[in-house]
Amino acid sequence: MRGSTPYLRDKTPYPAAALAAGDPLLRGDSVQNGMSDHDGSATELRVALAGYGLAGAAFHAPLVAATEGLELASVVTRSQERRGELGRAFPDARAVDALSDALEDCDVVVIASPNRFHAALAHEAIAAGKHVVIDKPVAVTAREARELRDAAAAAGVVAAAFHNRRWDDDFLTLRRELDAGRLGRVVTFESRFDRFRPQVKEGAWRENADPADGGGLLLDLGSHLVDQAIQLFGAPATVYAELDVRRAGAAVEDDVFVALEHPGGVRSHLYAGVFAADAPARFRVLGERGALLFYGLDHQEPQLRAGLRPGDRGWATRETGDSDGAWWHDGSGAVEPVAMAPGAWDSYYAGVVRTIRDRSGDTPPPVTLDDAIGVLDVLEAARDSAARGTVVALG
Questions:
Q1: I want to staple 241 with a disulfide (CB 3.0 to 4.6 A). Which of 18, 137, 314, 382 is the partner?
Q2: For residues 256 and 381, what is the distance between their CA atoms, to the nearest angstrom?
Q3: d(CA 15, CA 195)
Q4: Distance of CA 182 to the CA centre of its chain
Q5: Is residue 250 within 8 Å of 395, Cβ to Cβ?
Q6: Angle, nearest 10°, between helix axes 369-388 and 217-233?
Q7: In this predicted model, what pLDDT tens digit does every residue of 274-327 receive, in sequence order?
Q8: What is the pLDDT of residue 364?
Q9: Half-sphere exposure of 46 (CA within 13 A, CB side)
Q10: In this structure, what are the phi and psi dihedrals at residue 320, rounded to the nearest 5 degrees?
Q11: 259 forms bridges with which residues in the sheet?
């Protein structure tokens, strides 16, 4: 019935904070329990994409469409401009006004809405018995993320976080070199997501000071920085952070520094800012045998935005020896180019398909909600550290 209160599977209402967010993609409809006719046993899993902004249109829709075993069935967007773009790019996908309009004819819901709405939309999908993929951060708080994890477990559905930067070419190359022991014992890992954007983007929700929006660089780029550091060196024991608002008229942090101490003594120094006109190294990794430096960003985002797709010529590759690439320093003054592994964002959704198909439950999703919760715990500790000006212990 229109206007009734949405309920979770156990008939308890949604958290009031989620409903108060006023999600334009979430209607006040009763949520139907149970699976659609597509239960994962068909040839293709039908995907409903909630949100068709940058993340939905440039990342998720093309990656879903390129993945064997997935079909982009519907997209939630009320924007007539975006509906026109959808029709041109994916003419077989149906545009709908709200997620409730897509739930009866999908197996998987991909959530690419603004951060404020992630938790409410994910709860709606889970309550309807659908598998979910949630763009980072999966929720604005670690508490909300834990609630999502527990709801998915109770409903028996797969819930995965989309931390796509694990499949960047530079990160994959660095993992390869670390696994090979090239650096020996690693001492310091420096990682930057720096940009040159000295003006505030008016009207952008990421620039909004309301904590419920989840704006600011800490949750945005910090999610990638922390996730990559944890994947390389393990969950940190301590966190220290400095967060600043640098641009005129800015309401949320646009200058981020986070220091992590990992098991074994490796220290990660993570940076995100908007005044980096000098294009500093993306990664700088110092070890007892030498140093690895990486410049530039993985090419998959600009390629997707330009219309390229996985499998196209030049997809996700960089030439060895490009200044925009990886370099080995052995301390002698000699510099050696390092061959870059190809990027592999498309492997993410292939992993999601494998997880859903494996009914034994022995195949975890490419990024679990526990992974995402661990990242959010670190980011919340970083915010606490910055507020108090002290090192915060975890665990």
A1: 382
A2: 13
A3: 36
A4: 29
A5: no
A6: 120
A7: 999 998 999 999 999 999 999 999 999 999 999 999 999 999 999 998 889 999
A8: 96
A9: 18
A10: -65, 130
A11: 240, 269
**90: CB partners within 8 A, 6+ apart:** 61, 65, 72, 75
Q: Give the span between the Cα atoms of 255 and 251, in whole angstroms.
A: 12
Q: Which two tokens stand for residue 382?
A: 């970083």
CB atoms within 10 A of CB 114: 21
Token pair 């940076």 is found at 271
Enclosing H/E stretch for 125: helix 118-127
Beta-bridge partner residues of 109: 48, 132
Q: Which of 114, 168, 158 is nearest to 132 (CA)?
A: 158
pTM confidence score: 0.88
With b meaning 16 or more CB within 10 Å and e meaning fewer, what string describes 346-369? bbbbbbbbebbeeeeeeeebbbbb
Asked if residues 243 and 218 have their Cβ atoms less than 8 Å apart, the reply is yes
Round to whole Å and give the CA distance between 251 and 243.
Answer: 12
With a pLDDT cut of 70, the percent of the chain lying above it is 89
Element (H, E) at 19: helix 16-20
| Phi, psi (deg, nearest 5) at residue 8 | -80, 175
What are the tens digits of pLDDT across the range 15-29? 333 333 444 444 333
Is the previous residue joined to 137 through a cis bond, with omega within 30 degrees of 0?
A: yes
- In angstroms, the Cα distances linking 17 to 23, 30, 81, 91, 130 are 11, 18, 30, 36, 22
CA distance 313 to 71: 23
Q: Cα separation of 132 and 123, whole Å?
A: 9
Question: How far is it, in rounded angstroms, from Cα 158 to Cα 151?
Answer: 10
To which residue do tokens 């014992």 refer? 185
Q: Tens digits of per-residue pLDDT, 119-133?
A: 999 999 999 999 999
CA 346 – CA 309 distance, rounded (Å): 9
